Here is the input.
Amino acid sequence: MKILVINCGSSSLKYQVIDSETEAVLAKGLCERIGIDGRLTYQPAGGEKKLTDIPMPTHTQAVQSVIDALTDENTGIVKSLADIDAVGHRLVHGGEKFKESALVDDAMIAAMEDVNPLAPLHNPANLIGVEACRKLMKDTPMVGVFDTAFHQTMPEKAYLYGIPYKYYEKYGIRKYGFHGTSHSFVSKRLAELIGKPYDSSKLIVAHLGNGASICAVENGKSVDTSMGLSPLEGLIMGTRSGDIDPSAVEYLADKEGLDMKGVMNVLNKQSGVYGLSGDVSSDFRDLWKGVEEGNELCRKALEVFSYRVTKYIGGYVAAMNGVDAIAFTAGLGENDSGIREMIMENFGYLGIELDNEANRIRGEEQCISTPSSKAAVWVVPTNEELAIARETVRILGK
Ligand code: ADP
Here is the structure.
């Protein structure tokens, strides 16, 4: 089957076409500046990347431009739209309604609209992409794959916050967790790599990209994760603060004369390693450069970031009463050996030891712990698009 995988945001739309039999990417690209002017990037497998300015006043026009590129006589990868067998949509928040991926139909969209208040920035944008595809691809089956679904197996003790229970009942305020598609994909692969059955293993996945989260996967199920009601909780990220004392919100609002929206903007967009480094960058490559140049704030940002990751990993070892293997994934986790080293420095007491030579690896699947390490540590590249394509095939086959 040829699966079109769509990840739609408020002004951008990423896409890939994946052949589900060979799992090869047939074409990929991006629509940017939707609602502003519009730019399409399109790259067929083995072909050149092409950028074209195309008016995209709405998401429907953006999807139309993707369809036109995919069916183009010269550079397209299919003859007609009918050759696309299904669409898999990445959806951010499924609340408690979606414990797994779901076939897109009217009832599913109505159920998702109920969840929208939990993710006002992400879900409505995702749904616009779904609606645009439904309008233009009326006969093509579609599946929604939720970032939260994998974490729906968390026990109550992990997902409840220490606030009045009635707010959980009334408003669904609890930990949901995100990056589920990636945590599921990487943890399954990690179990294979260490030769343990997925359903009797204790694994920790550190998804470290611009957004970052950790997940404890016990016997094939997510039992805890660092992101919460929203992707703001947990680790320090590119520009997000992660965990913070809620009293600091009130104090900062008072001191800076900010309203709630203003403080949330600081915590989401001006914090993390970007804010800690004194606005140098949210990109770790720039922070390392800063360290080389003697920038003390860049060094602090790396230290605070990795200390938080260390604490979460240690906490999840305790939560599962042990760990068989740890995986690093996503842009930073796959590529930054220095950060992996800083994070894993303090696990000697558990007998977990990195192999500094092997740890030099970038973006490739590799074991980076010593042969005598009590738990294996691996770099496992994530592939969320492939995971969405696999889920789409699975749900349609049901
Ligand atoms: P997201 O999908 O959340 O936007 P990614 O998983 O693409 O993020 O990760 C992006 C981050 O990964 C960048 O901000 C950068 O800090 C880090 N990164 C990517 N490549 C490298 C590299 N070669 N060395 C160090 N860090 C890298």
Notes: The longest strand covers residues 25-32. DSSP finds 14 helices and 14 strands in the chain. The radius of gyration is 21 Å.
